[in-house]
TrEMBL record:
The protein's name: Large ribosomal subunit protein uL30m
InterPro entries documented for this protein: Ribo_uL30_ferredoxin-like_sf, Ribosomal_uL30_bac-type, Ribosomal_uL30_ferredoxin-like
Lineage: Eukaryota, Metazoa, Ecdysozoa, Arthropoda, Hexapoda
Gene Ontology, cellular component aspect: large ribosomal subunit; mitochondrial inner membrane
Keyword Acyltransferase: no
Length: 192
């Protein structure tokens, strides 16, 4: 009750004891489990998680096997152990920070990333359901949001047809039509 008296003296208004009891500094109890005082939590490695609702279930997810790591802060001004960790992760070029590095999602690498989390941006890589063949690796694209896109190969017959069309001498293009019409205009053959 000492805090109520101090607050009342500072604000010069009477404050009830409910203010202190309901303030954000007190521990809030879970309503649906408070009456029987039998709190059941889910244990995650070193943390006990108490769900907000009794029927709450965490969605299942499959963690990514690879991480896309991009350096966002410079090497300079950091301790030597953080510089060494960045070099061990694969950031060899100290001047270019926008070159991303792909690393495995294993506990050893995650521990290294935790020590330099303020210097890097970490994005999990989302792989497609069907991974590309070694022949299709030239038609893949890794977006900055971590999604790997596989662009299907174009049919060789279609490529040949496009090249034949582009190299056709009988094809009318804008420059050819413009030159012919200009010559006819100068001769005066268009008006007659």
């Amino acid at each position: 009750m000492f805090t109520c008296n101090v607050i009342a003296k500072l604000t010069r208004t009477p404050i009830s004891s409910n203010f202190v009891r309901n303030s954000s500094y007190t521990k809030k109890e879970i309503k649906w489990n408070a009456e029987n005082k039998n709190l059941k939590g889910v244990r995650y490695e070193g943390v006990t998680y108490y769900p907000r609702h009794p029927d709450h279930v965490d969605p299942s997810f499959k963690p990514s096997k690879l991480l896309l790591v991009t350096r966002v802060k410079p090497f300079a001004g950091n301790p030597w152990w953080e510089k060494k960790t960045l070099e061990n992760l694969g950031f060899i070029n100290k001047t270019h920070s926008n070159t991303p590095v792909i690393v495995k999602n294993i506990p050893e690498i995650c521990a290294m990333l935790w020590t330099v989390k303020h210097l890097v941006k970490i994005v999990p890589i989302k792989l497609p359901d069907k991974l590309p063949n070694p022949d299709d690796l030239n038609s893949t694209y890794l977006h900055e949001n971590g999604t790997l896109y596989v662009i299907p190969r174009v049919d060789p017959a279609r490529v040949d047809a496009i090249e034949k069309f582009m190299n056709d001498t009988k094809k009318l293009n804008r420059n050819l039509i413009q030159d012919k019409l200009r010559k006819q205009w100068l001769i005066g053959g268009i008006l007659s």
